[in-house]
Amino acid sequence: LNGYVGFETIPHQIEKKLLKRGFQFNIICVGQTGLGKTTLINTIFAAHLIESKGRLSPQDPVRQTTEINVVSHIVEENNVRLRLNIVDTPGYGDKVNNDRCWDPIIKYIKDQHSGYLRKELTAQRERYIQDTRIHCCLFFVQPSGHGLKQMDIVVLKRLSEVVNVVPVIAKSDCLTLEERAAFKQRIKDEFAFHNIKMFPFDNDEHDEEERALNTQIKNIIPFAVVGSEKSMLVDGKPVRSRLNKWGVINVENENHCEFVYLRNFLTQTHLQDLIESTSQIHYEAFRAKQLLALKE
Ligand code: GDP
């Protein structure tokens, strides 16, 4: 034991501390009513849900708008606790005149940043600031097969400036696999053409493996998803599935849709990066801007 200091246990100490504290992950869902937002979220997380409540505390900024709902969940898996806030934005794009219908969404995201900043700047700041900053915006694209709507492009551009945007092709079982591939390419081309910057972002700190993973994810995005809250028996096992005109769609089968890719991305491979990018890129940009404005 000569010379042994013991700091090699730091990762373990940090892990224990983090596990005890639990993780906070906040997702906002944007897309027209009926595109399967609620269903998809339930398909991803419902199996591990241990507690849900409909609203945050009364002093939460959420209450100021009527168009935005927050549902808080606690999900648990092997003693790892994830506090999950799911923010729904009913009414987006549902009206005849959708002019500026995205304003409340952008405002909501910025309000969380400014709330966090305010708490950070108080002299007696709390040890752990409750984090309501949005880590991921799931943007639901209608499975039209044609391309993005003009409004989608405007909104995606605005959103991607303030939050990590992850686009999904909603209800992709409405498209054949060929239609789906063509639609996906079309959407990718539009993102490139309009210079919409999507998560994941390049980072000098990434190693070879992370870089390869991100290239893979960038190829898949937008995820073509199918959600279902019902299970059917396939080979004697219950699987989340939907019955449509072509037969049974097994939500968890990669040959049928990309639901599993999205779930792994959100809960396994990119959870930490979504949280870090929010604080290091989006929140940092907001913070710098606010503090500069204060100086002037
Ligand atoms: P929301 O308004 O966006 O939250 O949509 P919901 O989750 O309430 O879903 C609206 C309807 O679409 C429901 O009848 C769902 O069963 C159905 N639905 C949800 N996901 C899918 C899907 O992936 N494929 C198909 N074909 N229908 C879906």
Helical content, roughly? Answer: 25-40%
Rg over alpha carbons: 20 Å
Whole-number average pLDDT? 87
Order of helices and strands: HEHEEEHEHEHHEEEEHH
Give the biggest sheet. Answer: 7 strands, mixed
Shape: globular
Number of DSSP strand runs: 10
Distinct small molecules: guanosine-5'-diphosphate
Strand content: 15-25%
Our count of helices gives 8
SS class? alpha/beta
Trace the largest sheet across and list its strands.
2-3-4-1-5-6-7
**Spatial gap, N to C terminus:** 58 Å
Unreliable residue stretches: 55-66
Word description of this protein:
This protein has 8 helices and 10 strands. The strands form 2 sheets. It has a 7-stranded mixed β-sheet, with helices on both faces. Strands 8-9-10 form a 3-stranded antiparallel β-sheet, with no helix packed on it. Helix 7 (259-269) crosses helix 8 (271-295). It has helices at 10-21, 37-45, 103-121, 150-160, 177-193, 208-220, 259-269, 271-295; strands spanning 23-30, 49-53, 69-77, 80-88, 136-141, 165-169, 223-224, 231-234, 237-244, 247-250. It is an alpha/beta fold and 296 residues long. Guanosine-5'-diphosphate binds at residues 33-39, 171, 173-174, 226-227, 242, 244.
